[in-house]
């Protein structure tokens, strides 16, 4: 094997301020909260900037601004709202290299992914929903569907700018205004987005960005001036939010965790399936709610598939997220690394067999090598709990019926994958899997026109597509 020469993307293109305020009513404002925290580059532990953890008074000010803006924004004709959203989409495309570098710095994901997956999808989402803004009367929600009002939106750290796009694009297209809280470890692209709103001349107050952690999020979703709550994150926090919103007029959508089965039948094309398994669980370090974290492989081909998978994993490169050759970047935070370690240790102590390719670990930062557990039983924690890291649990099955039973044996239901050459088996399986998305002979594919969301404890409501409009309309 020959070594690749380093091919780092330059970070000169990004301009990170030493500290940020809050973005309220179209301006950067000084917070009332005196709490400030650092956001770091998880690949090096270098401090990137300092952000505010907003308090109740700050959240109140942001919601007030959004309420005031709603009166005018909701009266702007759809064709005019579309122009703003199209403008935002184009600015994102123009600044995509800068945003990709910023995302990789703050999150730890490989530049190859932020450049080729996150950013194109972010722009596509704004383009897609800009197109809906003047066609809402034809969306199947009545002749004149009305917006809800102020949306309070809370997002996680795994796809910071993409989750922002999933939340903000449909909200604005439908005529709502928003207060968005990014995750505490990845606030920088949301703050860059605030600048983009200014660049696009978006009226003040239509988009407000308040940074902070769980308490800020909680203040936002509890605020009486919020009409709609949209949350993406853990099932645990989703439950708290559902409780706090219950009994109020607020409309709620929840996009929560997952423990997806990726099912490989014996007639599947093995090399293609192996690529799909790798993409399913090692894409974005496995920090993917719909990750294919449980591989269900038919017993007759299990050895062949696992041998091929291990050979493939030995070629993955872990390291500097800004290097264009990097396949696996850093784990987003020390806390997430501790969670992955804890569950992996439980896998070993419960009797599963652990394997990782030889993989040098950088001295600084948060890293976890690609890991495969074989001999996993359904009762093991690593088969039941979401690890949210580059860890694959392998189970086997003998018959298609057993595969479906095992796949559905989870409290979650966000996604699933089916690998087979037979169309009939594909459809048979897809109609029996209790999951919001079923991919066949591919995995982790996203398109703004396609609705995404969960069954069971993976949440409710859909984002993307025409379905995604419903969450932001009074229907
Ligand atoms: P988390 O639930 O702890 O945090 C998510 C967001 O909620 C963060 O912005 C956080 O600050 C905020 N938050 C925390 N406590 C809160 C509270 N009490 N009230 C309001 N907001 C609060 O999750 P995490 O560990 O940051 O993210 C990983 C989880 O998110 C995983 O379980 C993953 O499956 C899930 N996730 C789901 C999707 C999806 O689309 N279904 C997408 C990405 C991540
Ligand atoms: Mg960070």
UniProtKB/TrEMBL annotation:
Concerning PROSITE patterns, the annotation shows:
ALDEHYDE_DEHYDR_GLU
Q: Which residues form the active site?
A: 255
Give the residues annotated as coiled coil: none
Q: Which Pfam families match?
A: Aldedh
Keyword field: Oxidoreductase
SUPFAM superfamilies the record matches: ALDH-like
Name the family. Answer: Belongs to the aldehyde dehydrogenase family.
The protein here is known as Aldehyde dehydrogenase
Tell me which species this is from. Microbispora corallina
